[in-house]
């Protein structure tokens, strides 16, 4: 009696499993047959790619206010800007055919070629900057060597070295902040090379002063 009851239950469960499998297979074939190329195109048209985090596309295909990262500087060059952990940039104006106005994490607004590509979203791990180094060796493991102040050196090693006490003065009127090679670092000192127009103006002024 028990054996016959077990056989009947097993047979009923097998029939139920077979019917379920048959229905699933017919449903899959019907849905695959219904997905024509026209339906796929319509679905892609109505899907908002701009709102999908991780999508990579040219800046000209994005909308105003989009949060982006990993931005190219030149088309096809690869991502150069906004790649640090937890950083992001924002599109301030609607991209035109030529340039797109972007606000960087520092607050600087920059015009970038609209053909350059960028990734939508924010870089992960925003708490990276809050990490505490456990000891001095931890900094060395990251490849960061110690930094020694110039006033703690000797005069032969740095322009700020020497003197009595913590002093950077090099004479009666004192001395401004300098690099280890003696170049001024503060007070609006310009370090970039002169442009062509500036060079021509300086030559003209020198020539005119000679007469």
From TrEMBL:
Has the keyword Ribosomal protein been applied to this entry? Answer: yes
The segment(s) forming the Large ribosomal subunit protein uL2 C-terminal domain are: 51-184
Which cellular component appears as one GO term in the record? mitochondrial large ribosomal subunit
Q: Name the domain of life.
A: Eukaryota
Query: Where is it chiefly localized?
Result: mitochondrion
The annotated region (Disordered) lies at 152-189
Q: Basic and acidic residues composition bias: which ranges?
A: 157-167
Keyword line: Chloroplast, Mitochondrion, Plastid, Ribonucleoprotein, Ribosomal protein
The record's Gene Ontology biological-process terms are: mitochondrial translation
Q: Which Pfam family would be a valid example here?
A: Ribosomal_L2_C
List all membrane-crossing ranges. Answer: none
Report the subcellular localization: Mitochondrion; Plastid
Please give the Gene Ontology molecular function terms for this protein: RNA binding; structural constituent of ribosome; transferase activity
The answer to whether UniProt assigns keyword Kinase to this entry is no
PROSITE patterns in the cross-refs: RIBOSOMAL_L2
Q: Which family, according to UniProt?
A: Belongs to the universal ribosomal protein uL2 family.
How this chain assembles, per its entry, is: Part of the 50S ribosomal subunit.
Its recorded name reads: Large ribosomal subunit protein uL2 C-terminal domain-containing protein
Organism, as annotated: Vigna mungo (Black gram)
């Amino acid at each position: 009696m028990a054996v016959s009851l077990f056989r009947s239950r097993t047979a009923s469960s097998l029939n139920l499993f077979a019917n379920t499998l048959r229905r699933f297979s017919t449903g899959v074939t019907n849905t695959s047959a219904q997905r024509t190329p026209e339906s796929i195109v319509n679905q892609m048209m109505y899907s908002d790619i701009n709102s999908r985090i991780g999508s990579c596309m040219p800046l000209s295909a994005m909308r105003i206010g989009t949060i982006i990262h990993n931005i190219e500087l030149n088309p096809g060059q690869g991502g150069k800007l906004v790649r640090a952990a937890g950083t992001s940039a924002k599109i301030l104006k609607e991209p035109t055919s030529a340039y797109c106005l972007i606000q960087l994490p520092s607050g600087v607004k920059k015009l970038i070629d609209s053909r350059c590509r960028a990734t939508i979203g924010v870089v992960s791990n925003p708490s990276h900057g809050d990490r505490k180094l456990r000891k001095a060796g931890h900094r060395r493991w990251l490849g960061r060597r110690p930094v020694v102040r110039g006033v703690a050196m000797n005069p032969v090693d740095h322009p700020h070295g020497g003197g009595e006490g913590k002093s950077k003065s090099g004479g009666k009127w004192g001395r401004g902040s300098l690099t280890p090679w003696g170049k001024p670092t503060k007070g609006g000192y310009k370090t970039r090379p002169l442009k062509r127009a500036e060079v021509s103006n300086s030559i003209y002024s020198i020539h005119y002063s000679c007469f």
